[in-house]
């Protein structure tokens, strides 16, 4: 897997590329909140055998910039990813988004439906409103990034992983180190304050019902972050959606069930519609 950085929309965007770009379908992977391309480390080795894979660090996460100049709305993140794909000459592709990345993927469909063949939503966040007004106002306070750092440190990386993984034995030193690494750069905390401020909320039911792109939804039956009932509701609101439920699985489906997720994706992307 090859990692690269490209200037897109005034920010250095990091992405990893693997598989064959000349003969295979392209699949774009978008991670969730407080995560990075690292979260697909178990899934990519399966996907790259059949697909051209681009795994992107959404700003301000992973190795992408954590600047105060970027507008961290879902709409702008989606536009930034679409611009990256233009720069690397990817005209048609499918996209898989985990958790928050699912909302970015859905925003991409609204902005560029003709370029996206199919969408895979992995425990996708949905139906969340914009942050409350007093939280948005608080994000302008100079000490707010310190508050975010303190809030996240209360549970720590291990505590966060325990809440998103059903099988706790999967949590090892490499997983902990991989998810903790990005927080060594203190610039992420002011950027997270801006994300709270800029995030416009998830797509409305009306917007979801307007999407005609085929969607595959993959959910863990023990998801504590985005419960299965959200997946069932999303499957009803998206006109062309199918829901797959993985047993004894939490929120972090790409880590917990990579082979099963790959098999579902492979079947879905190769299925003619």
What topology does this entry show?
Elements: E1 2-8, E2 11-18, E3 26-30, H1 44-47, E4 52-56, H2 74-87, E5 93-98, H3 100-111, E6 116-122, H4 133-138, H5 144-164, H6 173-180, H7 188-198, H8 205-209, E7 215-220, H9 228-237, E8 241-246, H10 253-256, H11 258-270
Parallel strand pairs: 3-4, 3-5, 5-6, 6-7, 7-8
Antiparallel strand pairs: 1-2, 2-4
Helix pairs in contact: 2-3, 5-7
CATH class descriptor: Alpha Beta
N-to-C CA distance: 31 Å
CATH superfamily: Alpha/Beta hydrolase fold, catalytic domain
- Cα shape: globular
CATH architecture: 3-Layer(aba) Sandwich
**Uncertain residue segments:** none
Output the strand order for the largest sheet.
1-2-4-3-5-6-7-8
GO molecular function: hydrolase activity
InterPro entries: AB_hydrolase_1, AB_hydrolase_fold, Epox_hydrolase-like
Organism: Siminovitchia terrae
Protein name: Hydrolase
Question: Could you characterize what this model shows?
Answer:
The chain has 273 residues and is of the alpha/beta class. The protein has a single domain (2-130, 201-270), classed as Rossmann fold (3-Layer(aba) Sandwich). It contains eleven helices and eight strands. It has helices spanning 44-47, 74-87, 100-111, 133-138, 144-164, 173-180, 188-198, 205-209, 228-237, 253-256, 258-270; strands at residues 2-8, 11-18, 26-30, 52-56, 93-98, 116-122, 215-220, 241-246. It has an eight-stranded mixed β-sheet, with helices on both faces. It is globular and about 50 Å long. The two termini are 31 Å apart. InterPro entries: AB_hydrolase_1, AB_hydrolase_fold, Epox_hydrolase-like.
